[in-house]
Structure formats: C-alpha cells, structure tokens
Amino acid sequence: MGLVSSSPEEIPAFVGPFFVAATVGCQFVGAYLVSALFAFAETDTEDPDPVPAGLTASDSSAQSTTPSFKTGTPEIHHPAESTSHNRSASPVGASDHRLSSAALDQYSYDWQYSNTEFADIGGYYEIKSELDSKVIEPIRSAGADDDRFSRFGIEPARGIMFYGPPGTGKTMFARALAGELSAPFLELSPGDVTSRWINASSEQIKALFDEADSIGRCVIFLDEAEHLFGARDVSDLSSHVEDRKVTSEFLAQLSREGREAIVVSATNRPGDIDPAILRPGRLATHFEIDLPDEETRHAILEIHLAGVPSSLSGEELAALGAQTRGLTGAELEELVLEARRNAATRDAETITREDFPSGDRLAEQSESSQSQTPSLPNFGDQSRGYQ
C-alpha cells in the first residue's frame, strides 16, 4: 500500500489527530504573521511633527520649508493653502479663544497682543464712543449671546480709516482697539507688504489675509495708507503698474465675504487715497483724528504726568491745556518729557510749572505747530480711481 490512499477507510487512525493539530497550528501562525505585518507598518511610518495651536497641518509643513516674512526675504510664503479655498469665517463672537503668543510666533507676520487700551489715550471721547458702538459692542454682544445687534442685521465695522495730522494718535487708536478686543494685532508699513519683484506684492497681500483667516478675529493696521491705496488713474504716468496691482489686490481682499479680520488704516494725506477703497464693504468707517481740543490736551497732559512726582495745581494744568493750542498728542508728550528732564536736572522733588516753557514760548510754539489736514475724497467721485 502506498503512502497516499484515495479511500478514507484506508487512512491510519493516528493521522486524524495529527491533521487537526496541524490545522490549528497553521491558523495560529497565520494570525501571528498578520499582526506582525500591521505592527511593522505602524512603526515604519514616522508621526508628523505636532502642529501648533491655531495652525493647520499645511501651515506647519509650509513654515518648515519656506522662508518667513520675518526674515525680510522676498520669497513668498503661503501659510495655509486650505484657507484660500475655504474662506468662510466663523460667526462674529465665535472665535473668543485666545491664541497663545507661542502659537502666534509660528506665523510669518509678526502678530502680537496689544497692551494699549482706550484708557491710555487722553480725551477724544467721541471717537472712543463711536469705535465702541460700531466695532467693540457688536463683537462683545455676539460673544455673550446678546442678539441686540444681530437681530437687526448689524455687523461690526471691519474696515476703518483714520486720517489727520501726524502725531495725533492714529497708530495708538489702532493698538487700543486691538487691546480692547484682546485680539492679535499686526502693524505694517507699506514696505512690509510690497516688493520690488513683479507680482510678489500681490502674493504677499494674499498670504497676509490667508494668515488672518487662519487666526480668526484680529486687527491689521496699515500705516501710510496713501502708499498702498493711491488712486489708480491709468493716465497718471507716475502711477506704477505694480502700485495699481497692490491697490487692486487690497480691494479684492477687503471685499471678500466672511472676512473676520478688522483692517485699520491711517493716513495724513487723505486726498491721495483711491475713493474706491472707501466704499461700503471696504474701508467704509472713517474717523478724523484731528488736533486735540483744550479738554483733550488737558487729559493728555494728565496721562503723561501720571506716576510722576508733580506739584502742579489744577489751575496750572488747566492753563497749560489752554496755552498749548495747536500741539499734537506727540508734541504734548514731548513737552512733559522735557519738563521731567528739567526737574531731574535741577534735582527737584517734584515737577513744577517752572519746568515747562513760559506762556509766551508756548504761544509761539502753538502758532508754528498748527496744521490742517484735507478731508477724505468722496468715494462716489468717479473722476479719480475706479469704482
């Protein structure tokens, strides 16, 4: 008889138990091999680096391979490609989470939190009140489930233009607005968002708003707005084609639906602004930060004298406020600083009236410092720029 038989009756008795044991063993070995294969696949794949809070995975990848704007290189950084395809921002008040400073450091632009508040600005009470009612209160109400603004379809102003003479506090108002909102703040000059490379400026502006979308509610301050939003009259030979591209790109970004970033700009040359940038939906809320009146000058002097040993009487301080007509907030700050130097030089215990210029000297300085700023152009004026 051969080793293999076609007849079941001819299989020896000992083969049955051996066959069962072999079958069970094969199943065990197969299960072990499958589990080992899966374990090898998991250990063979490296986990990606952790992504900082507030950034997407594409943010982290892009930042590890692309030069940052903070380095001053002309190369373009796209922090989050996904945000350019999904522009829908969260509802007003929904982004009440506060990104850590470490998370903000992961972005290309230098986002920071402002420590300035309205209480740090002397006077200008009407402007503070308007900013509160048009920007701050609608945002705070939405965050507190208060529908008094939303039920009437009132959205916070997200495009603001400050204009007025130099030194009147336009930058400080932008910082204070961000401080009141506890929102990330970014302060930019024209050189921060423009480039000498063709088309690079437009790309940098897109990247800026991509970062703003990724952060959520924030405040972008654009100083010297006349250099960014100049009139795009194609007949003007002094208007460079790249400058017109910059203005056009800002127009496109400011007009986007769902933009959560609050864009604040400032200029002391409002007549040079393209009227199209001032249309509703863009930089439509305008504030003239003019030379301080007597009440505001008094308040500014009080703020800069706070915490400094002073024996100035209320009448003397009021007289200084009246005698400094025409001085800006910056000039009043310098006036107090000079008085402190004088007091320190004479080793005085406190600042007195003699540490300030005489009344006649202040009158001369007042007359030479007064300046007038033209008004903003009417955005309905189609003789300048494009609509």
UniProtKB/TrEMBL annotation:
Domain AAA+ ATPase, chain residue ranges per copy: 156-293
Start and end residues of each stretch annotated as Disordered: 48-95, 344-387
Basic and acidic residues compositional bias, start-end = 344-364
- Biased composition annotated in UniProt, kind: Polar residues: 57-71, 373-387
The domain of life for this entry's organism is: Archaea
Question: Which UniProt keyword terms apply here?
Answer: ATP-binding, Nucleotide-binding
Q: Does the keyword ATP-binding apply?
A: yes
Keyword Nucleotide-binding appears in the UniProt entry: yes
| Pfam family for this entry, one | AAA_lid_3
User: According to the UniProt entry, where is the signal peptide?
Assistant: none
* Residues in coiled coil: none
The transmembrane segments are none
What SMART domains has UniProt attached to this entry?
A: AAA
State the Gene Ontology terms under molecular function.
ATP binding
UniProt xrefs under PANTHER family: AAA-FAMILY ATPASE
Protein name according to UniProt: ATP-binding protein
Record organism: Halosimplex aquaticum
